[in-house]
Specification:
The structure is a homodimer. By secondary structure, chain A is mainly β. In chain A, 8% of the residues lie in helices and 45% in strands. Chain A has a 4-stranded antiparallel β-sheet, with no helix packed on it. The longest helix of chain A is centred in the first third of the chain and has 18 residues. The two termini of chain A are 37 Å apart. At the A-B interface, α1, α2 and α3 of A face α1, α2 and α3 of B. Chains A, B: This is Cytochrome D1 heme domain protein. Chains A, B: InterPro entries: Cyt_cd1_C_sf, Haem_d1_sf, Host-pathogen_enzymatic-act. Chains A, B: It comes from Roseovarius litorisediminis.
Amino acid sequence: MKPVLRFIKNSAPTEGIRCQILAMAIAVLATCSTPQALRAQATGDLGLVVERASGSLLVVDQSDRASIGRITGLGDLSHASLVYSPDERFAYVFGRDGGLTKVDILAQKIVRRVMQAGNSIGGAISDDGRLVAVSNYEPGGVRVFDTDTLEMVADIPTGCKTIGLVDVPGTKFVFSLWDTGETWIADLSGDAPQITKIPGMGANPYDALVTGDGRTYIAGLFGEDHLTALDLWQEHPKPQTILPGYAKGREGLPVYKMPHLEGWALAGHDFVLPAMGQHEVLWVDARTLKETGRTATHGQPVFAMARPDGRQVWVNFAHPLNDTIQVIDTVTKKIIHHFEPGPGVLHMEFTPRGHEVWLSVRDAGKIMVYDTGTFEKLREIEAESPSGIFFTARAHKTGL
Amino acid sequence: MKPVLRFIKNSAPTEGIRCQILAMAIAVLATCSTPQALRAQATGDLGLVVERASGSLLVVDQSDRASIGRITGLGDLSHASLVYSPDERFAYVFGRDGGLTKVDILAQKIVRRVMQAGNSIGGAISDDGRLVAVSNYEPGGVRVFDTDTLEMVADIPTGCKTIGLVDVPGTKFVFSLWDTGETWIADLSGDAPQITKIPGMGANPYDALVTGDGRTYIAGLFGEDHLTALDLWQEHPKPQTILPGYAKGREGLPVYKMPHLEGWALAGHDFVLPAMGQHEVLWVDARTLKETGRTATHGQPVFAMARPDGRQVWVNFAHPLNDTIQVIDTVTKKIIHHFEPGPGVLHMEFTPRGHEVWLSVRDAGKIMVYDTGTFEKLREIEAESPSGIFFTARAHKTGL
């Protein structure tokens, strides 16, 4: 744009160049008339939906309950997740194939893309928005990139698969090691990463979460019948056991689907956890980390997600019961609503203040929008095999 | 824009109209080159700073630590506050003079302005973004407006001054009555407001807050030596006394400045409250509502605000000690930093994930930006008598 304007300003418009100006002006008009350049677009109510089969992202608008564009060419998006820049303009997409892609949600296009590993499993963005970290299965370890350029600024090898990577305040990242049962805290605020290693988390941590205040890190363990927590506010955080033997004395059901721990949520005074291999969700006091109750559910929960105010918990289930959603009331811990949105309900995302929820119904090829007060369906939006839904409000939160 | 494009498409460009097209195209170019129309501006990291003396708003960018524009003509902005639309594009500004002004932060201009009362004291926006409510001293009561048009959709007279107006989930607003000591819950989800009245809150509630989950409403009382809480998740919420006789046995200091309760914050397991008429902040267990500690401070606290992760509490003070900030560590409840940014520190706003804080230093005519980890000053920004600072991330939160 700038060269064109300079040319017009500096030249006397004779008949000869008038045509050139005209042609350029019309070209500029054409540019202006695209939605990206012309429309004054606020980004606070936008979002991206992962379309795993086609390697694309659907750009959506919460207020209009509509899709407003599609970004293609993102490679293997099975198990993909993403984080947002602080201005809610750019998304960093972590593909299963090791691809790290920076997407401009305003221009609806890919800005940069690097293949940073052979097999990756999620990432996080630092509190200052300068760094994005990726957790890798192959070759293992964590790699940290500049959010502007996607150049690698730190490589943290671990010798094994890393899981449960989250950001915490102070330009720090926390993650766990599958093979050694350690949790590492990487402080990236200085020139070189400072690593603190915490052993004794337990056998084979497979996923983890951090609370919204960045204080409590909880790891799920594949090799033990309990979970492990860390209080990151302590000078030297020590592993604490949660829910020891929670499945003891009961025949373990086959694990159709590993529950996702990023779905764990604070609801009222409790954390709500999907029980691994059981048809129930578990309630744990957020302070004492003691069990406070169990709610029997329709199937093996995959995500147990609290509405942002914590008053309701929405649960979806593993195959073959993944056509169903149950809603639990936090005060009574009872199921207050049960419905079947359609085949393959893979993910849920609440509007930031919780009045609506969006569901990915993969095998129906639809996103469905519901009112969380009346449970009324408000809208269906076409999407190609939708999975994860990510609203831009995540930019303002720790640990997502 | 659209008529111009249509004209070009439908006409054969003969020499005669070519000049018209050229002129129009250049006019369009000029339009395109204004920052509003051309620049792809994400809104997630923007904010507004109230310039009370000049009745203007400074538009600021958190990532650039810079002011990027000014919006004028907002009338009396002493004690002004504002809320944001869910897309983080529009702000609704509540002026002390009863003015309600809708501002477009992308176009940097006033969209609509109505004088809705003689004297107003804050407002709130519903969870669905459809309604904005204003709390009035004169003529009293609460008035509710459509956020698109600013047309009044509900008038809720109370016969007296109303204070402590907040939004809670379910398209509801909660507020208290100075004269009668009642709290009212107004449900605006249907055609007509449904009002629930809760008497017995105590004498002369002067301000109130609701927790981020919309569950606990706490009113400060001018006529009593305690505070009163409501659990809004109960079917019939009952007033509970907090901190009875907290100033008993001690000579009350003159109240230079009423503490602002919207500054109350959840830090770790506790609420942190500025003590009225005392040189201290009070810590109250967020579950039991019992006092857990007191921290002696430099002066009478005005705002005691938790960093978003709750690990620090930043406190400013009433005149004549309002050149100072103290920072308290939540774990030890001890002051860990004391500094004097300059004369008239009126307000603080944290970046959404808490790595930086912006301070209004009114009598220095500056906003100052600090790193909350190192306490280093990162930037000074010129402003005309700045007071309240409001970042767009507030759009995604309940009760702010």
